[in-house]
């Protein structure tokens, strides 16, 4: 029984470490997904703007 009592602090620290690392990894995964979503939306908006600009006739430059 004394052995288990001696292991309790180490197990507690191990569990705290596990949950801290898990939280960090989840936050990183969510941030990467959000950045990828923002990049896709920006690319789609740029493509839409390019399509819109391609359909508009621009005035020739006045020299």
Descriptive key words:
1 helix, 63 residues, mainly alpha, 86% helix
Tell me what you see in this structure.
The protein contains 1 helix and no strands. The protein has 63 residues and is mainly α. It has a domain at 9-49.
Q: How many DSSP H or I helices?
A: 1
Assembly state (oligomeric): single chain
- Biggest beta-sheet profile: none
Helix content: over 70%
Q: What's the β-strand tally? A: 0
Order of helices and strands: H
What is the element layout, followed by pairings?
Layout: H1 2-55
Summary of the model, kept short:
It is built from one helix and no strands.
């Amino acid at each position: 029984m004394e052995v288990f009592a001696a292991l309790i602090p180490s197990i507690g620290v191990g569990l705290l470490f596990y949950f801290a690392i898990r939280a960090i990894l989840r936050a990183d995964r969510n941030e990467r997904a959000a950045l990828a979503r923002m990049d896709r939306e920006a690319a789609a908006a740029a493509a839409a703007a390019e399509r819109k600009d391609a359909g508009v006739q621009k005035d020739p430059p006045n020299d």
